[in-house]
Amino acid sequence: MKNFMARIWDGKNQQMIYPSESFYWTLSLGGEVFMGNKVQEDCDVMPFSGVCDIEGNEIYEGDIIIADYGDEYEEKKGRSTVIYKDGDFHFIMGGYERIEWTVCKQIVKDFKIKVVDNIYEKAQRKVQK
Residue 81 has what DSSP assignment? Predict the structure, then answer.
């Protein structure tokens, strides 16, 4: 079986768990998350895209990014959430002409993509206010 990098949102403890050498988890074929030999409830797995933002931060599914997607005639900046579908990582930018882009090194460079948050921790901060 191929190894892949991902992080886990532990909904029960309201914390993000990142991959490390001192902590391991297993994902079953049925989508259950095991930490040690115990099934973890209320967990969401977010795979790593394999790409880092312009500051070297890893980009995962569920990350909130900002991007500069303008051209030589018009400067445009926007915010989007990274999603995983059809075997690739995507984000959508634009107002009227919403365009879906695939996350890759060239797009990160061209759009100056920067990770600013993620959907779980942002929601948690809203609840705490």
Answer: E
Question: Domains in the chain: how many in total?
Answer: 1
pTM: 0.81
Does residue 1 form part of some domain? no
The DSSP secondary-structure symbol of 87 reads T
Q: What is the domain extent for residue 103?
A: 6-128
How far, in Å, CA of 50 to CA of 71, rounded?
26
SS3 state at 63: strand
Q: Which residue has the tokens 């403890």?
A: 13
Q: What was the pLDDT predicted at 1?
A: 41
**E strand or H helix at 104:** none
Q: Does 21 map to a domain?
A: yes
Residue 16 lies in a domain: yes
Q: Where are the alpha helices (DSSP H) in the chain?
A: 105-111, 119-128
Contacts of 39 by beta carbon, 8 Å cutoff, 6+ apart: 32, 33
Q: How far is CA 33 from the centre of its chain?
A: 18
Mean pLDDT split into 10-residue runs, the chain, 129 residues = 74 83 68 72 86 95 88 78 90 75 90 92 63
